[in-house]
Structure formats: C-alpha cells, structure tokens
Automatic annotation (TrEMBL):
Pfam families for the chain: DUF1192 (PF06698)
InterPro entries named among the record's database cross-references: DUF1192
Name listed for the protein in its UniProt record: DUF1192 domain-containing protein
Organism of origin: Phyllobacterium zundukense
Length: 61
C-alpha cells in the first residue's frame, strides 16, 4: 500500500456561529466531539491556573 492510496486527513475547524445547515450528521458529530475535547482542555487549564494561584497566595500570607 502506498502513501498515495490514503486520503489525507483534513483538519476540522469550527467557527463559532457559522452556518450549520450544510453539514452532515457525521460532520456535526465530529464538531461536537472536537468542541467537547476543547472544553475539557480549557477546564483542565483553568484548574491548573487556579491551583497555581492558590499556591502563590498561600506563599505570600
């Protein structure tokens, strides 16, 4: 099997507020999964920053 036999994987990009009427159910599912993983990533970062803030505040008390 050659590298050229496989279709290149396209990067899914979602713009907030974009028209969804032209997307298939599968594309909508992909976007939902993408956005859920991004929400998880954002929540984890917020938690890390919150932990750092609490540690810094404790240091200066």
């Amino acid at each position: 099997m050659s590298l050229f036999d496989e279709e290149p994987r396209r990067k899914i990009i979602h713009d907030i507020g974009q028209d969804l009427s032209l997307l298939s159910v599968a594309e909508l599912d992909e976007r939902i999964a993408l956005l859920r993983s991004e929400i998880t990533r954002l929540e984890e970062e917020r938690s890390r920053k919150g932990d750092s803030k609490v540690a810094a505040e404790a240091l200066f008390r």
